[in-house]
């Protein structure tokens, strides 16, 4: 029997980027908030002297314990799903700050095309361009409507970037980035020169790794990046990487209006008559169960956790792929990688051991609808980039194709090219399909006895064609960089849960203006429960050719605004 606690005005489930942003905005406005985080407490002090590649990059110190909770996976409904028991395709963050602690810091606003993808595709190419089974849809918001919230995130995080953006390929910015771009390495300059020689439009990647010391509008002071190359899978000991635990969460804590409860694993949203009345959570060290009544419930977890909680709570209509009805679990999408070109240089050596998570140059000539798709068998595209994130010794050992996997020649080539290889790669957009979705697994359960979330997904012809096309572009760029030998990956077949690919999972509780195909409106307020807000990448109706964090952050700021509007007048916000 759960112990019933005194009612609180607002409860937030998950204290990563989304929970931190919303908590900061609400507490600054004087509202009392309880934040429930299933992992442990964390601060910048925990990041000191942690340049341990084995512990963090290989043994996943900052990640969720898969023996207690994981996801199950299958390609299609005819297959038996099986649990992911060791980390591979994506990494699930755990503890205060969530995945915002171990991200690289690469920052991209989604394109104007993304938010109105169905409308703009049909206008340009006609309905027949959308293949059978693909269920792209508009997001119920435009880029221009969301633009001010991107600015709020950028000013808070101190995003570093070029003051001028190519508005032909990207959305207009009403305010420049608050800090200048990061340093340009020789390899970045080679990439940019090669791209320009091909009449492309490269630019320095926008970065949540500070290029200089910065004080944000909330008075948070952070130091500049040291280019130590320990970003992805690590917390930043300098505080240079924007992270919820060094930006928004301290602001909320300083107000005295935020109570954080760690080791609080929320298992259910309690609801009645179109409204939530609170949540149930388990204190994981003791096993005690608590009921936390609340006026407003905000789900601010990772994609899988948000969707799992909705389904387990029977809140919102579950998606049915056979009929195409229902919304919770619909429009799951991943990130399409696979196109890349690695160049090996006999006449040049690079300091690739140094770097930063978002140190790089990239281009959007083949992203979104920036190029003509009339004669192509895919929609959207991807960002093409050279990034110098730092080649840590355990994870990196590039050798040319044809090199033996062991023996004296393997050792010779490994030493020869340790600092003489560069890779140009893509992040490709992933479109939703009717048969790609999330639901509860009927067999496997977590450590608390609740069903695991099940992922049904595979690569489509759309994805294979996208990779084939973009690999030709990466190959051309690398050859223009004058590599001695170029190895290009140009195809993908079926999706596999291993090896690591990207943590950019999206969808399952998507936003829109039609309740029959969306779970939440453009304030991330549930259609089926007006005092529940489901915020995060679960709201994405598809995944773009970019990292999702910028758009997650912008939507969190808009949701915070919506929550305060709801507190004033109640009811649906749209």
Layout: helices, strands, pairs:
Elements: E1 3-4, E2 8-13, H1 17-28, E3 33-36, H2 53-58, E4 71-74, E5 82-83, H3 99-102, H4 112-115, H5 117-125, H6 143-157, H7 186-197, E6 203-204, E7 214-215, E8 221-222, H8 248-255, E9 258-261, E10 264-272, E11 275-283, E12 288-299, H9 303-312, E13 340-344, E14 360-363, E15 382-387, H10 408-416, E16 421-428, E17 437-445, E18 451-456, H11 461-480, E19 485-489, E20 532-534, H12 549-569
Parallel strand pairs: 1-12, 2-3, 2-12, 3-9, 4-18, 12-20
Antiparallel strand pairs: 4-5, 6-14, 7-8, 10-11, 11-12, 13-16, 13-19, 14-15, 15-16, 17-18
Helix pairs in contact: 1-8, 1-12, 6-12, 7-11
Major beta sheet, specifics?
8 strands, mixed
The CATH homologous superfamily is called FAD/NAD(P)-binding domain
The radius of gyration is: 23 Å
CATH topology: FAD/NAD(P)-binding domain
Strand fraction equals 15-25%
Number of strands: 20
Count of domains: 1
**Fraction of residues in helix:** 10-25%
CATH architecture grouping: 3-Layer(bba) Sandwich
> Helical element count?
12
CATH class: Alpha Beta
Q: Sum up the overall morphology in one term.
A: globular
